[in-house]
C-alpha cells in the first residue's frame, strides 16, 4: 500500500438534545444522529449559557448548539446533488476547544486575555469561556496572576511596546496512565508565550523566564494542581497581524506534545496546525477510513504534519505520499509520529515539502485515492482544473508510460518536484512498476462551507466526478461553521436498479 503525503481508540459520544427546563447535559447516544431527526425547537439543554456571548467574536449563536442553521443549506445542497442520506455528527457542545490563541492586552494590573471584539482590535476578556476546555480557562487565570504579580506589561499595539503579545493554549488529553474516560478532564496545557522581542537575549528576557517559572511552580507537576504540560516562547516583533514569529524556544516541561486520533499517536509542535476539537476530528478520521480500500495508493494533499495520511497507513495499510507547503517543523512532527506507528505498519510513505498547486496532475498520477484538506479558502484553481480534466491526465500518463523506458524517477515526476525536502519511511520500498493510473476516488475535507460549494459545483460540472457520500461534523459548536467530508467517484453516478417487470407468458398451455 502506498501513501504519499504532499506537505484502544478514544470514545466518541453523540449528543441528541431535547427541550427541557433543566440545564443538565444530555445523555450520549451510541450512533450519529441523522439531520432529519434532530429537533427544530431551541432546546435549553443545548444553549450556550456564556456570560461573554455577543461581547467577544468567538461564538455567533446561543441556541441549538447541536444543530447550526447552516445545516439546512448543507442538507438541501447535497440532496440536489444526489446525496439524500447526508448525516451530521456532534459530540461535546461545551468545553470542546482544546486549542486557543488569545490576545493579551490591557495593563499589568488589569490584563485582558481573550479575543478581539468583532471588527475591532479591542480585546474582550473571556475568563469563563464555555467553548474552552476547562483547563484552558484555569491556565488563563494562572497566567493572569503571573502577569499581575510579576509586573509583566501586555503588548500595546499603537506603540509597539510591552512584553506579552499573545498566548497559545493547547490541551493534550493523551495520558495512557489514566482510563480513557478520565483523560479528557485531566488534560494538561501546553502554554506558548508570544514575546515582543527578537530572541531570548533581548531586553525583557528576565521577565519572560520569571513568568515561565511562575506558571511551572504553580501549575507544574509539583504544584497543588498539576495543570501545565510545558511552557514555550515564541519571539515576534512584527507590526502585522501574524501571531507567531519564526523563533521558538522550549522553556520548561515536556518537549513533545502527543495526542491520539485516528488510531495513531500524533506529535504536534507548538507551531504545527492542530484541530481545536480533537474528539470531532477523531470521529471524522474514523469515518474517512471506511472509504479508503485496504492497501490502496493514496495521495494526501495539503497534508500538514501528515495526521490524515498516517492514520490511513496504520488502519488501511496504505502506500502514501503527503504533500505540504508549510515550514519544515511539520517534517519534524511527521518523523516523531512515524516512530510511534504500530509495528504492523509496513508501507511506503513519503512526505514532501512541496506545493501541490504547481503541476498538480503529477501528484495525482499513480494514486488510487486522493485526499484533499485545503484551508478555508478552498482548492487552488490549478488543482480543480486537473481534477476536472482527470480523463486527459490519465490519457497523458498512459501515453507517457508506453513511450518511455526511462528510469523510475522519470516515471514518478513528483519525486523531482520535492527532492529538496522529502522524507521516506517504511521497510517496503516503492514498487518498481509504478502504475500510471489516476484516482478513482476523491475525498474532500472542508472547513469552509461556501468555498466547498463552489469547488463541488465546479468539479461536478465537468461530469468527471459524481458525489457519492457526504457527512458533516460539529467541529465548532456555537458558530455557523461545520466540517464536511465528501466522497466523490469517477464518472457519472450509477443508476439504481429498478424492479424487473415480470414477463407475461404468451401462447397456449398444454396439459
TrEMBL record:
Residues 490-511 are annotated as: Disordered. It comes from the Eukaryota. It comes from Flemingia macrophylla. The keyword Methyltransferase applies. Signal peptide: none annotated. One of its GO terms (biological process) is methylation. One of its GO terms (molecular function) is methyltransferase activity. This is RNA methyltransferase. The active site is at 447 (nucleophile). Transmembrane segments: none annotated. Residues 491-505 have a biased composition (Basic residues).
Amino acid at each position: 500500500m502506498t501513501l504519499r503525503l504532499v506537505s484502544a481508540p478514544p470514545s466518541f459520544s453523540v449528543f441528541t438534545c431535547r427541550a427541557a427546563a433543566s440545564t443538565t447535559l444530555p445523555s450520549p447516544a451510541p450512533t450519529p444522529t441523522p439531520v432529519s431527526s434532530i429537533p427544530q425547537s431551541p432546546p435549553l439543554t443545548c444553549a450556550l449559557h456564556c456570560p461573554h456571548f455577543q461581547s467577544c467574536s468567538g461564538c455567533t449563536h446561543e441556541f441549538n448548539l447541536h444543530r447550526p442553521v447552516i445545516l439546512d443549506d448543507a442538507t438541501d445542497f447535497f440532496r440536489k446533488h444526489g446525496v439524500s442520506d447526508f448525516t451530521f455528527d456532534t459530540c461535546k457542545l461545551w468545553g470542546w476547544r482544546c486549542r486557543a490563541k488569545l490576545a493579551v492586552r490591557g495593563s499589568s494590573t488589569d490584563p485582558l486575555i481573550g479575543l478581539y471584539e468583532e471588527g475591532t482590535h479591542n480585546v474582550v476578556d473571556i475568563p469563563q469561556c464555555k467553548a474552552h476546555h476547562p483547563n484552558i480557562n484555569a491556565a488563563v487565570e494562572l497566567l493572569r496572576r503571573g502577569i499581575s504579580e510579576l509586573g509583566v506589561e501586555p503588548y500595546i499595539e499603537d506603540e509597539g511596546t510591552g512584553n506579552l503579545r499573545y498566548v497559545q493554549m493547547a490541551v493534550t488529553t493523551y495520558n495512557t496512565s489514566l482510563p480513557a474516560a478520565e483523560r479528557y478532564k485531566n488534560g494538561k496545557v501546553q502554554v506558548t508565550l508570544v514575546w515582543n522581542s527578537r530572541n531570548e537575549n533581548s531586553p525583557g528576557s528576565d521577565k519572560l523566564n520569571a513568568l515561565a517559572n511562575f506558571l511551572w511552580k504553580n501549575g507544574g507537576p509539583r504544584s497543588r494542581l498539576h495543570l501545565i504540560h510545558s511552557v514555550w516562547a515564541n519571539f515576534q516583533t512584527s507590526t502585522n497581524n501574524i501571531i507567531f514569529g519564526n523563533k521558538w524556544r522550549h522553556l520548561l516541561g515536556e518537549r513533545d506534545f502527543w495526542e491520539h486520533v485516528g488510531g495513531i499517536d500524533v506529535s504536534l509542535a507548538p507551531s504545527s496546525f492542530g484541530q481545536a476539537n480533537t474528539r470531532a476530528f477523531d470521529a471524522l478520521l474514523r469515518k474517512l477510513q471506511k472509504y479508503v480500500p485496504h492497501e490502496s495508493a493514496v495521495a494526501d494533499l495539503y497534508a500538514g504534519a501528515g495526521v490524515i495520511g498516517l492514520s490511513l497507513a496504520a488502519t488501511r495499510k496504505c502506500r502514501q505520499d503527503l504533500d505540504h507547503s508549510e515550514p519544515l517543523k511539520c517534517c519534524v512532527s511527521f518523523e516523531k509520529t512515524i516512530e510511534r506507528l504500530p509495528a504492523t505498519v509496513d508501507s511506503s510513505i513519503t512526505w514532501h515539502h512541496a506545493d501541490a498547486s504547481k503541476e498538480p496532475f503529477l501528484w495525482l498520477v499513480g494514486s488510487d485515492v486522493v485526499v484533499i484538506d485545503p484551508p478555508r479558502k478552498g482548492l487552488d484553481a490549478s488543482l480543480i482544473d486537473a481534477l476536472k480534466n482527470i480523463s486527459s491526465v490519465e490519457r497523458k500518463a498512459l501515453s507517457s508510460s508506453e513511450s518511455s523506458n526511462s528510469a523510475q524517477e522519470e516515471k514518478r515526476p513528483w519525486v523531482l518536484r520535492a527532492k529538496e525536502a522529502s522524507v521516506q519511511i517504511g521497510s517496503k520500498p516503492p514498487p518498481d512498476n509504478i502504475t500510471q493510473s489516476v484516482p478513482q476516488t476523491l475525498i474532500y475535507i472542508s472547513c469552509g462551507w461556501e468555498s466547498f460549494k463552489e469547488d463541488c459545483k465546479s468539479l461536478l460540472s465537468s461530469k468527471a466526478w459524481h458525489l457519492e457520500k457526504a457527512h458533516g461534523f460539529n467541529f465548532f459548536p456555537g458558530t455557523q461553521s461545520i466540517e464536511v467530508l465528501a466522497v466523490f467517484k469517477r464518472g457519472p453516478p450509477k443508476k439504481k436498479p429498478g424492479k424487473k417487470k415480470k414477463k407475461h407468458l404468451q401462447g397456449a398451455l398444454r396439459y
